[in-house]
Amino acid sequence: MATRPSLNPLPDILARFLKTHGMASRMLEFTLQQHWIEIAGEHVGRHTRPESIRHHKLYLVAENSVWLQQLLFLKPELLAKLNGIADGAALTDIVLRVGATSPAPDSSGPAAGQTEAPPPEPTEPALNTAHLHAALEETLRPIADPELQARLRALFENSGLTAHRPALKENPRTR
Predict the structure, then answer these.
(1) How far apart are CA 155 and CA 43, in angstroms?
(2) What total of structural domains would you count in the chain?
(3) Do 76 and 138 belong to one domain?
(4) pTM summary value
(5) What is the mean pLDDT of the chain?
(6) Which one, of 131, 101, 120, 122, lies nearest residue 165 by Cα?
């Protein structure tokens, strides 16, 4: 009688897949952007927003110079709290700047007298789609239930994790 393979919790499988393919920081960035007010607190969260994570640094936008100064004092406490959420020392610093903390109502272009900010640089190299498909199959192999394998495969494929993401496309301005 063949031994039944051990069951691995789905969150552990997903976390391992994201970490081995360099997507853990992107997931942390997304989590911070979606839940910033709950993470930073109502008072701080209404006057700041997380912009991006690059090279283990959180780029944080403050509403004005007063909030930027306040964040300088809160930086160590906020960094410790964020690393607690990230399950370890994922972030090494917080880089602060003054800017808009909420999306502008008209995003068709820059306002009069303002220049358009350059798009953020990709934080990861372009992903090899064939490599991701092979890694996905390797990750799903221990799962004995073919229906569950098919559903997880569809989940990964529909989420865009196995294809090039728009953020990683070539910047047309650099051609």
Answers:
(1) 36
(2) 2
(3) no
(4) 0.53
(5) 75
(6) 122
